[in-house]
């Protein structure tokens, strides 16, 4: 009776803790809304937001068939077939549900808060996964850790409306269902698992991690002799159903069976069937006959394997990248991207992380993970071997690409949750066992069942821990009732574990100090996470702020420029800018862009890069051939905004030079150094990007032209534009928009070249002299 | 293009002058005559305000109860508001009684002249005279010329009118004064006696002019005041009987002056605030009611961070800056929203109905609104809504759904074109509402949660497995 009550109380408490963890996960991500505003962040989220707007306005069928002519002009982009639709469909569905309940939230609001909502879901999924591995206590600890792990916060603050926001939930949930199937052997969970995998495929390209990790685990289980029918049920339906479902997603399509990322799963699929057959035959044959059969099967199997391998090799070899996409290849060979694909290398999140970024992103978890791994080996089950494999692989991947730190974070949380929970278990147990008053009263209250009083106490402790030790040993439980019976009737292995636990008792003082230190560690983690959420990761990057003596200063130049473009240019005008600003331009200014963050066409990007690094006339010709009306450059020299186009310029040169060999990187470097001052090369000083960035910059500070980002005086101060004219510059000069002069003027200027040229230059000189130093 | 149309307009006026004088004997069938007329035209902002003082005398045999005011068709198109008042008392004890004014069509109006009829309070008997004050506002009547200017040029505009007051009646004596924003007047048509002193132009006095006399004049002068035109304004007033009045205003703002041409140079704009971009504007002032709270100012890509709110007991002033300075022809859209305490605006009338008393026009000072829509969203469950306005506006009813509505909220939609700040006068919306409806949504939510708990309770206590184990 008492135990039922305690069990019920524990469940209710657990429910409320989970609810609070959800609230915590949601609210810690609201710093961006409170400190800034409810707005979509950064670059990719703007594209997702735009797609969601289209989806809610035009419906799902138009969405699948959407050919977007506002981007990659003149090529366009088939959005329905090239986008992972999970996030958009999720937010679209949320919006639709809310609106059919007559709750008039705008699409933007729904998009802004999708990520925090799904982080709460992810925390709950972590609870379930860890619970399957090591019991409720570890589950709660892991969920609480995940709710505020900085690495995940960085991708899921309110407004960060990106694929990862829902994908991490889908990833953990798929793993949970896999482990659940592994523990129960239920086909129901196996089906759910395939559906969860489908959702993951819809959401993020990172699904290849799942489809490689799970086969690895299955293989590991087989190799270590842990094959069971549960493994078969967990694995095979996932591969068959999952691959079929994945092929339904347009962006994946036949890639689900054709690219090398998926081959591992098919190989293991074959192996597991061979093994299953072997076990089956072993069951029906006598040992002698079985030996004969083994030799037969092995020889046949070898032949089949050779054939399959030969086919695979032929298939793989027939594709130019050996069947691997650039991003995946750079996973295997970390130096691949920087060597061969500058466009991948140019993105900062594709760089390998530094050590401080580990500390920044997972903080104390880095120290707890080893302890968690150790705890997983005591005892090793199918589930715990899975999380061990998960942490090992994700550590490797995070070392390759800083973006994949995100995949590491849940694994680190699970491991640390297990470590914390086990440590707390050990320490509290040793304290309880050594507190004389407590143990006596426990003896009296629970002295009805066992022969050894101390064992009873331990059993009680075990119950309060809500440890699933017995459940794990007998994973094929059908319902809760049975679980309850299990708890009340300790089975044989728990006696063994009891004696093990007996040995784990530590001295009282040590345990108290260790507990205190653990709490301190947790407190430090919480403080760090809140700091990271509030200070480091909540800036929307679309609006910048700085604190000065006279208060907060807001730099809202990007939106100023986009608003100007959207209201004061023709709706069909084409805007050229470096690809970073493509998504934002289409979403906020609603203008056609030449290249955007999708970066699917290297040549096109190289064309823009070439134009930016060419002299004015050549650039004008390139842009004019692309129907470009306006050129947008980002310039941080006046206010000291470091990620501007001048700092990105070398990538434009590299990417441009990769396709058009007349652009050579050394032409822009003086002795291997990138500089913009008077030492800069003439090619650099005459290229379009330089001119557009520094046009009339000298007039802002009275002839000095001091660039606050590069901390130097610029090399060429008086810049004359003949083919472009300045049409808009934002308040802090961060965005400058130029218009291509129509070709008619150019022809006329050719005929009376000398006259117009001299007069215009004279004009400019005069105007420069007249208003010297307008700032003082 | 616009210059051409301006020229065209001049020709029409000249032509009409000729024909009007020929036709004049036909229409002079009235018994009224104007003894003394004085007209003051204010062209300081982009809204032209004309103040007309007419001393009307009845020379006929029967008494007259209405006075006709005549306007050229071009002007009539731009009249946004017209008010008339009669002067009572003399000198110190002067007071004004407003008159009812209606647009009228006369069957044989020469050259499409448009009329407004002012209805006198007491019929004017033979030999008596009365002084009428008329005020009307014209929008879009200052034509920029040159049509396109660059950043450093000032904005010059044309104003077309007649030196003589267009009238249905014989005018004995009249004069016209025109105030320009500065003394920078490029040119003006001389109709002797005409004279300019500083920022004021004076035409007249002219004596004994027959009805429908017309003498077109063009004044070309510098006007750098903000030509803030709201092309479309939708104001939503949502009443919540829980104590809040939520107002959301969607603006489509444009600079209605001379179009900006060529380069916009930030360095010149910031470096020489006086000389460059004189006709551009970047501040707007919205006058909001007092006790305003939770004000926001944003557009469809997020907050606009440049705004200031000053509020005291009498009024609140919201100073807003669009994202970028507006030059001629540039546009911007934004949304202003704010909440107000309900008790300041919602009252109960004697017959038990409730009514909202709220100001109609655009709260931003000195703006013309080309198309204004006011939507009053009444709480769910209110009945028989009706609006009461002191001027004409198109009215219809809609239904909107918001926060968990089931039957929807009635919405009174009022539409009016060509609105000026003089329209900022209160209007009333009457409706019937039972307070019990306020509880509908909380009760609904409570019951939904209750049902949720009951079902989960039932589910947890049920054993739906087929096989007992």
Oligomer: heterodimer
State the secondary-structure class of chain B: mainly beta
Top-tier CATH class of the largest domain in chain B: Mainly Beta
Report the mean per-residue pLDDT of chain B as an integer: 86
Count of DSSP strands of chain A: 11
| Beta-strand percent range of chain A | 5-15%
Instruction: Tell me the span between the first and last alpha carbons of chain A.
Output: 84 Å
* Main beta-sheet annotation of chain B: 10 strands, mixed
Q: How large is the count of helical segments of chain A?
A: 38
The Rg value of chain A, from CA coordinates, equals: 31 Å
Helix content of chain A: 55-70%
CATH-defined superfamily of the largest domain in chain B: tricorn interacting facor f3 domain
How many domains of chain B?
Answer: 2
Q: Please count the helical segments of chain B.
A: 4
Organism (chain A): Daucus carota subsp. sativus
Pfam family, one (chain A): STT3
Family (chain A): Belongs to the STT3 family.
Keywords (chain A): Endoplasmic reticulum, Glycoprotein, Glycosyltransferase, Magnesium, Manganese, Membrane, Metal-binding, Transferase, Transmembrane, Transmembrane helix
């Amino acid at each position: 009776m008492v135990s039922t009550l305690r069990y019920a109380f524990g469940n209710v408490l657990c429910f409320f803790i989970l609810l609070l963890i959800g609230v915590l996960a949601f609210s810690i991500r609201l710093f961006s809304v409170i400190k800034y505003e409810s707005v979509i962040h950064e670059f990719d989220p703007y594209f997702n937001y735009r797609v969601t707007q289209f989806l809610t306005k035009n419906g799902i069928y138009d969405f699948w068939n959407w050919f977007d002519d506002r981007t990659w002009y003149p090529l366009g982009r088939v959005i329905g077939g090239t986008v992972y639709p999970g996030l958009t469909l999720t937010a679209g569905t949320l919006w639709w549900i809310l609106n059919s309940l007559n709750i008039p939230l705008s699409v933007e609001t729904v998009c802004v808060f999708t990520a925090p909502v799904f982080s709460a879901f992810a925390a709950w999924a972590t609870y379930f996964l860890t619970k399957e591995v090591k019991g409720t206590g570890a589950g709660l600890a892991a969920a609480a850790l995940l709710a505020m792990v900085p690495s995940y916060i960085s991708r899921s603050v309110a407004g960060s409306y990106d694929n990862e926001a829902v994908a991490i939930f889908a990833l953990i949930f798929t793993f949970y269902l896999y482990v659940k199937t592994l523990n129960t052997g239920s086909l129901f969970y196996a089906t759910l698992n395939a559906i969860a995998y489908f959702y993951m495929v819809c959401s993020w390209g990172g699904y290849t991690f799942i489809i490689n990790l799970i086969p690895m685990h299955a293989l590991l289980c087989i190799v270590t002799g842990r094959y069971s029918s549960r493994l078969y049920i967990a694995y095979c339906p996932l591969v068959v159903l999952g691959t079929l479902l994945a092929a339904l997603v347009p962006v994946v399509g036949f890639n689900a069976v054709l690219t090398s990322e998926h081959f591992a799963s098919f190989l293991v699929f074959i192996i597991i069937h061979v093994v299953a057959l072997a076990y089956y035959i072993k069951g029906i044959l006598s040992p002698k006959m079985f030996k004969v059969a083994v030799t037969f099967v092995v020889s046949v199997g070898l032949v089949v394997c050779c054939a399959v391998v030969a086919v695979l090799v032929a298939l793989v070899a027939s594709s130019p990248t050996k069947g691997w996409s650039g991003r995946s290849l750079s996973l295997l060979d970390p130096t691949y991207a920087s060597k061969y694909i500058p466009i991948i290398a140019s993105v900062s999140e594709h760089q390998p992380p530094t050590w401080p970024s580990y500390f920044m992103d997972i903080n104390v978890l880095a120290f707890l993970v080893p302890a968690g791994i150790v705890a997983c080996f005591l005892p090793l089950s199918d589930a715990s071997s899975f999380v061990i494999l998960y942490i090992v692989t994700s550590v490797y991947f995070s070392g390759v690409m800083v973006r994949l730190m995100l995949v590491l974070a849940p694994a680190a949380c699970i491991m640390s949750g297990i470590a914390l929970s086990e440590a707390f278990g050990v320490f509290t147990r040793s304290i309880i066992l050594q507190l004389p008053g407590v143990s006596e009263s426990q003896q009296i209250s629970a002295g009805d069942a066992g022969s050894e009083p101390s064992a009873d106490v331990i059993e009680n402790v075990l119950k309060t821990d809500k440890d699933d030790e017995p459940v794990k040993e007998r994973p094929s439980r059908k319902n809760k009732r049975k679980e309850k019976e299990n708890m009340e009737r300790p089975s044989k292995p728990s006696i063994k574990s009891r004696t093990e636990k007996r040995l784990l008792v530590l001295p009282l003082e040590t345990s108290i100090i260790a507990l205190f230190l653990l709490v301190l560690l947790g407190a430090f983690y919480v403080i760090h996470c809140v700091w990271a959420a509030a200070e480091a990761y909540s800036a929307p990057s679309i609006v910048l702020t700085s604190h000065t003596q006279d208060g907060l200063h807001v730099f809202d130049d990007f939106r100023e420029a986009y608003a100007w473009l959207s209201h004061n240019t023709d709706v069909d005008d084409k805007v050229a800018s470096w690809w970073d600003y493509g998504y934002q331009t289409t979403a906020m200014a609603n203008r056609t862009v030449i290249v955007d963050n999708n970066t699917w066409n290297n040549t096109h990007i190289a064309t823009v890069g070439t134009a930016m690094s060419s002299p004015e006339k050549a650039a004008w010709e390139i842009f004019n051939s692309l129907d470009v009306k306006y050129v947008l450059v980002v310039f941080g020299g006046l206010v000291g905004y470091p990620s501007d186009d001048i700092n990105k310029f070398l990538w434009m040169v590299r990417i441009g030079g990769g396709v058009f060999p007349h652009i050579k990187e050394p032409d822009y470097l003086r002795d291997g150094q990138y500089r913009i001052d008077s030492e800069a090369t003439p090619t650099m000083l005459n290229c379009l990007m330089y001119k557009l960035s520094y046009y009339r910059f000298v007039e802002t500070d009275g002839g000095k032209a001091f660039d606050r980002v590069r901390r130097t005086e610029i090399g060429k101060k008086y810049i004359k534009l003949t083919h472009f004219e300045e049409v808009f510059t934002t308040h802090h000069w961060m965005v400058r928009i130029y218009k291509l002069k129509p070709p008619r003027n150019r022809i006329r200027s050719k005929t009376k070249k000398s006259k117009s040229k001299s007069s215009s230059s004279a004009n400019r000189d005069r105007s420069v002299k007249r208003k010297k130093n307008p700032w003082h | 293009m616009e210059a051409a149309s301006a020229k065209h307009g001049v020709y029409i006026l000249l032509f009409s002058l000729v024909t009007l004088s020929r036709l004049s004997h036909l229409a002079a069938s009235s018994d009224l005559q104007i003894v003394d007329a004085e007209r003051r035209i204010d062209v300081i902002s982009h809204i032209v305000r004309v103040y007309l003082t007419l001393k009307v005398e009845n020379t006929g045999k029967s008494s007259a109860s209405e006075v006709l005011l005549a306007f050229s068709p071009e002007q009539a198109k731009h009249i946004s508001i017209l008010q008339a008042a009669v002067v009572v008392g003399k000198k110190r004890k002067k007071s004004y009684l407003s008159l009812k004014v209606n647009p009228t069509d006369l069957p044989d109006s020469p050259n499409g002249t448009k009329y407004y009829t002012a209805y006198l309070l007491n019929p004017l008997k033979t030999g008596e005279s009365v002084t009428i004050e008329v005020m009307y506002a014209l929008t879009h009547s200052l034509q920029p010329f040159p049509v396109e200017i660059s950043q450093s040029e000032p904005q010059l505009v044309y104003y077309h009118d007649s030196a003589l007051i267009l009238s249905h009646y014989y005018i004995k004596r009249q004069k016209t004064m025109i105030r320009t924003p500065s003394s920078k007047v490029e040119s003006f048509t001389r109709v002797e006696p005409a004279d300019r002193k500083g920022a004021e132009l004076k035409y007249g006095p002219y004596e004994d002019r027959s009805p429908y006399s017309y003498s077109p004049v063009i004044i070309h002068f510098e006007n750098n005041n903000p030509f803030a035109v709201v092309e479309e304004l939708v104001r939503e007033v949502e009443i919540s009987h829980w104590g809040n009045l939520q107002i959301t205003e969607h603006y489509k703002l444009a600079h209605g002056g001379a179009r900006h041409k060529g380069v916009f140079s930030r360095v010149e704009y910031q470096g020489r605030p006086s000389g460059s971009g004189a006709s551009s504007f970047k501040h707007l002032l919205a006058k909001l009611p007092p006790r305003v709270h939770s004000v926001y100012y944003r557009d469809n890509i997020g907050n606009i961070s440049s705004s200031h709110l000053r509020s005291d007991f009498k009024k609140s002033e919201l100073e807003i800056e669009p994202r970028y300075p507006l030059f001629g022809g540039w546009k911007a859209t934004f949304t202003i929203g704010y909440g107000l305490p309900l008790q300041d605006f919602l009252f109960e009338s004697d017959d038990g109905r409730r009514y909202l008393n709220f100001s109609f026009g655009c709260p931003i000072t000195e703006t013309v609104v080309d198309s204004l829509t006011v939507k009053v969203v009444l709480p769910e469950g209110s009945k028989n809504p009706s609006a009461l306005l002191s001027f004409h506006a198109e009215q219809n009813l809609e239904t909107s759904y918001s926060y968990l509505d089931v039957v929807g909220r009635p919405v009174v939609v009022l539409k009016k074109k060509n609105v000026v700040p003089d329209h900022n006068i209160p209007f009333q919306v009457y409706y019937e509402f039972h307070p019990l409806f306020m509880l509908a949504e909380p009760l609904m939510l409570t019951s939904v949660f209750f049902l949720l708990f009951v079902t989960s309770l039932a589910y947890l206590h049920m054993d739906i497995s087929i096989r007992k184990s």
